[in-house]
Amino acid sequence: MRAIHVGILVSYDYKYLPTCISCIYDYADKITLAIDKNRRTWNGEKYKFDESFLQTVLAKDYANKISVYEDDFAVSELTTMQCDCHERQLLYEFMGSSDLDAWHIQLDSDEYFIDFKGFVDFLHKLEKSYTGKITVMPKLVTIFRKVEDGIIIAEDTNSVFFPVASIGGCRFNPSKDEIKLTVPFIVLHQSWGRDETEIQFKIENWGHNRDFDTNAYFEFWRSVNKYNAPYICDCHPLGKKSGWNKLFFKPGKIQDIIQDLRRQSPPINFKPSMIRRAKKDRRINRLKQSSVGQRIKPIVKYVLRKR
Questions:
Q1: Which of the two ends of the chain, N or C, has the fewest CB atoms closer than 10 A to its terminal CB?
Q2: Which position has the higher pLDDT, 86 or 238?
Q3: Among 149, 120, 142, 131, which Cα is nearest to 26's?
Q4: What is the pLDDT of residues 64-103, one digit of tens each?
Q5: Closest to 97 in 3D by CA, of 200, 193, 7, 231
């Protein structure tokens, strides 16, 4: 069986790291924490980092699985989004996952894998049927806001899947000849579920800080509560196509939500038909991107409009 290597990006939101680690620790073979050596964001801004906090995390590493990778991830010549991809690629190379002998899994410190044991079992069954390059994409569930007696969750009607586990590539830096497999496992993303000071810092320094009016969106975010949330739709900061079709309120704390999602998660079994479907999707995508596909694209759109 391939080893399970988990890389976690750690930055100003480091306080969420213990929850992230607790969800994956027992079933990972190696865990690497990637932290900017100068404690700077991708935007180049310094952030406060409690070094004793990191030592506390490492002190609880009873199986000696955790190591720390420090490097300069804030490159002034790159945009924040490019720095994001740059750090992930460096982490991938540092962990030695490019030898194809391990599953390379990347998470951020505010992402909580709901059923990591089930996911690891799924990956080991998958690798018996397919040995090529692949990215496995679980479902992302986003916390939009924490309120006094619960949280507001952003729901995507069509489900949003994002790259997490790879052979031959890494998150946002895929291998050219890989297949992509979507699976109904869930990762809960703390995301916007923070206090106002954190949110202001986040939107000024994350990978999408230049992609929307951050001040206007921050004011909108502040206005959302458990009473008006059900009436809000299509509220993703990057636009309607990015998801977040509606919001809903759920009582309880983050740990309550994690436990609730675990109880509700049915067992997910690997089926060879999943690989056949993924290969078919790759062929279709290659056709769409080919010169022939680009020529017939306007014709297809015209025919569909007529229907």
A1: C
A2: 86
A3: 120
A4: 999 999 999 999 999 888 999 999 999 999 998 656 789 9
A5: 7
pLDDT of residue 33: 98
Q: In this structure, what DSSP letter does residue 106 have?
A: E
- Give me the residue label for tokens 């994002």: 162
Which of 6-20, 35-49, 209-223, 282-296 bottoms out in mean pLDDT, i.e. has the lowest? Answer: 282-296
165-167 and 102-108 strand pairing: antiparallel
pLDDT averaged over every residue in the chain: 89
| Interval 168-177 mean pLDDT | 86
Beta strands in 37-156 (DSSP E): 66-71, 102-108, 111-113, 134-147, 150-155
For residues 28 and 103, the answer to whether their CB atoms sit within 8 Å is no
Report how far Cα 303 is from the mean position of its chain's Cα atoms: 36
User: What is the rounded radius of gyration, in angstroms, for the C-alpha atoms of the chain?
Assistant: 20
The distance between the two most distant Cα atoms of the chain, rounded to a whole number of Å, is 65
Note whether 95 and 7 are within 8 A (CB).
yes
- CA atoms of 131 and 66, how far apart (whole Å): 27
- Asked if residues 186 and 261 have their Cβ atoms less than 8 Å apart, the reply is yes
DSSP 40: B
Buried b (16+ CB within 10 A) or exposed e, 40-54: bbbbeeeeeeeeeeb
Residue 304 has pLDDT above 60, yes or no: no
Distance of CA 285 to the CA centre of its chain: 23
Angle, vertex CA 197, rays to CA 111 and CA 258, nearest 5: 25
How many residues are present in the chain? 307
